[in-house]
Specification:
With about 260 residues, the chain is of the alpha+beta class. About 25% of the residues lie in helices and about 30% in strands. It has seven helices and ten strands. The strands form three sheets. A six-stranded antiparallel beta sheet has the order 4-5-6-9-8-7. A two-stranded antiparallel ribbon has the order 1-2. Strand 8 (about 205-215) and strand 9 form a beta hairpin. Helix 1 (about 10-25) crosses helix 3 (about 45-60) and helix 2 (about 35-45) packs across helix 3. The radius of gyration is 24 Å and the shape is elongated.
Length: about 260
């Protein structure tokens, strides 16, 4: 591929497409690309034009810079689908080997804020499970899961579950059928940065989720996923009817009072 000076497509966009093609067909993750000077000489472009193309690819997560060493091909991101599935199921579906390290599995008393999330009373018993999640031996996420103790009596005696959702279904008849999730980008705290092996100035996807078995609230979870390894994938379709929270559906009789 070459730069076409008569094309209506800006030169930096043409160079971006050339580099994307090289990333897709020739360059392996963590291998360096040519320097800005070399790219400028190879394609007869100014240093500013080359830098604009490279900056776009860095912003897109296709390249990354190491100070004093150069610019390298980034590992491909995995799509993080917004779906109610266990981490083990999700990684297996991707053809990766999932693993977990349990950091905490204990009973705690619900704080006022946690009680609000779980719809229980402050001081009620809560089972807390904290796990560091891996895919192909790479740390991917820190998950902190909370379950009302009254929903899962005896769970601690079973030991740390390999798959929490499987244990909930098999031992308690709780199959999670729907949920609500909030996702935002932020910097990791000191603990999560160390566990995920990323710098404090790195970015994580912070997710909070409440999961239900029909109308029964079962789980409140907060997770930090490495943003350098994940991207969101959300299927969109036109709803057949207005979207409402099934737990908050209005009572038609109330409208006439």
């Amino acid at each position: 591929m070459e730069i076409n000076p008569r094309s209506p497509v800006p030169k930096h966009q043409q160079l971006r497409e050339i580099l994307l093609e090289l990333i897709a067909t020739e360059l392996e993750p963590d291998t360096p690309i040519a320097s800005e000077r070399e790219l400028g000489e190879r394609y007869s472009l100014s240093r500013m034009t080359v830098r604009q193309a490279v900056n776009q690819l860095v912003a897109d997560g296709r390249l990354y810079r190491v100070r004093g060493r150069g610019t390298f091909v980034a590992k491909p991101k995995m799509d993080l689908q917004v779906r109610l599935a266990s981490y083990t199921e999700d990684m297996t579906r991707r053809g990766m080997v999932p693993a977990s390290r349990t950091l905490a599995f204990e009973r705690i008393e619900a704080s006022p804020s946690l009680a609000r999330q779980l719809e229980i009373q402050p001081g009620d018993g809560v089972v807390r499970l904290v796990r560091l999640r891996y895919a192909d031996s790479i740390p991917m996420a820190v998950e902190r899961t909370h379950l009302p103790e009254k929903r899962v009596p005896g769970l601690l005696a079973l030991g740390s579950p390999k798959s929490l959702y499987h244990t909930l279904a098999e031992h308690y008849g709780l199959t999670l059928t729907w949920g609500e999730q909030v996702i935002e980008a932020s910097n990791p705290d000191t603990e999560d940065a160390a566990l995920l092996e990323i710098p404090l100035i790195g970015v994580v996807l912070q997710m909070t989720r409440r999961s239900y078995s029909d109308d029964l609230l079962v789980e409140y979870a907060s997770s930090a996923y490495r943003a350098d390894r994940y991207q969101l994938w959300v299927p969109l379709e036109r709803p057949a009817q207005p979207i409402t929270n099934p737990r908050a559906a209005p009572n038609p009789l109330e409208a006439h009072r």
